[in-house]
Amino acid sequence: MRKTIADLTDGVYDFTGHANLADRGARRYRPFSFDFDSTPQSLELPDENWDEQVKRLHLISRARAIKRLELKYGTHNIDQTIKNTIDLGSKSMSLLSYHNELNEQARRSFVISAYYPALVAACALGERILNHLILDLRSNFMASPHYRKVYRKNSFEDWKFAVTVLADWQVLANDVGDDFLALGKLRNFSIHFNPASYQSMRDNALAALKCLDKIIAKQFGYFGGQPWFIEGTPGAQFIKRAYETDPFVKNYIIPHSGLVGPLHAMEMSQDGGWDHLDHDDYGDEDLTDEEFALRFRERDPEKVYTAR
Fold this sequence. Notes:
Blueprint: E1 28-31, E2 34-37, H1 39-43, H2 52-73, H3 78-88, E3 91-95, H4 99-111, H5 115-137, H6 147-150, H7 159-168, H8 176-191, H9 201-220, H10 247-253, E4 257-260, E5 265-268, E6 274-277, H11 289-297
Antiparallel strand pairs: 1-4, 2-3, 5-6
Helix pairs in contact: 4-5, 4-9, 5-7, 5-8, 5-9, 7-8, 8-9
């Protein structure tokens, strides 16, 4: 009997049944669960060289953004609140996981000029991410020389050791290990007693939050050149077939993905998220990642799935 997506209870999200699909070779996982905030961009003053109509629309958008800040944080010290928000910059797009709400809390502290809590929170969250990565993934690396040093421990405070372990396990994307170490230096300078830190509290808090944002964008983001995503699929990300068994991808990204073919569609759900909609059967083709990307780029709009 030919098994298709239609035969699975949860369809594109029925992960235990995907391996036995008849058209498995024509499908790839597409994540579509993210956290993002571009408010700081709306608060920037318009450039003098902008078209007058564009300026006008931007100023209207800016006034609305300021009003939202006033409702959220109050009118007291609103000018500094606006400056802090602009200096902080947009929050990078990130898949949904344990770090999103904690990062938001740290950013809010900075916005209201609570620089020391923001600094401590950013450093603590960096350490929490390192610990999560080791604890969540270590069972996949039992043959590693590092395993005997980590399998009984419940937490890790040595950032250099943690980064070394994760780098050797090839868990970290791009140069995110360097960003962890840079945040670790800020942590050591600011958290351990150092009278000089009083003079640079805001600068250090801002640097720590920006460093944390780099870590999240590179490790948990969608558009940072992560090695597990197929190249050449504008506006969308799909997991490479070879990376579907990668411990980080399998643990963090696939659970927030749908298994789809090149002609799938996306539909906003009632809770404000997104659902993957797709055809039941793509046949017996076994597409390479490059072939899948080409099919996605050149797909016929008339053949893209539509709800019936």
